[in-house]
């Protein structure tokens, strides 16, 4: 892989995360392949496939927040595979605030993300999220669910 194509892969991943940090859902979709697989590794049975369903999945957790910010960290790429260590600050409307630490694995093919796997600790979120956060998730639209358990 040439240095130029490595830069492209890195730019795709960082562009995706910058769009997500702005919660710019339309821009985010432009970084995703039509069959992109998104997996929150703590719960692979609650995955999403394709830009529309991935955005539905992300909105469920992030759209109600009063504040959301992604913080860049280490990014390592090896051809089409990218590992991105980063953190997110979540601020709830009721004032609770906390930082979630992530390691994300992406696969980028032809300038689009085809795989997005987030590794994080569910207990970190539980430690600072208000109780109604999880109650609200239980009542959310789940039309996006794709069970990726057998694929990861």
How would you describe what is shown here?
The protein is an alpha+beta fold and 152 residues long. The protein has one domain (9-138): Nuclear Transport Factor 2, Chain: A (Roll). The protein is 34% helix and 34% strand. It has 5 helices and 7 strands. It has helices spanning 3-22, 25-29, 51-62, 122-128, 131-138, and strands spanning 32-40, 48-49, 67-71, 75-78, 81-91, 97-109, 112-119. Strands 1, 2, 3, 4, 5, 6 and 7 form a 7-stranded mixed sheet that branches. Strand 5 (81-91) and strand 6 form a beta hairpin. The chain is globular, with a radius of gyration of 15 Å. The mean pLDDT is 93.
Task: Indicate the topology.
Blueprint: H1 3-22, H2 25-29, E1 32-40, E2 48-49, H3 51-62, E3 67-71, E4 75-78, E5 81-91, E6 97-109, E7 112-119, H4 122-128, H5 131-138
Parallel strand pairs: 1-7
Antiparallel strand pairs: 1-2, 3-5, 4-5, 5-6, 6-7
Protein name: Limonene-1,2-epoxide hydrolase catalytic domain-containing superfamily protein
Organism: Mycobacterium numidiamassiliense
GO molecular function: hydrolase activity
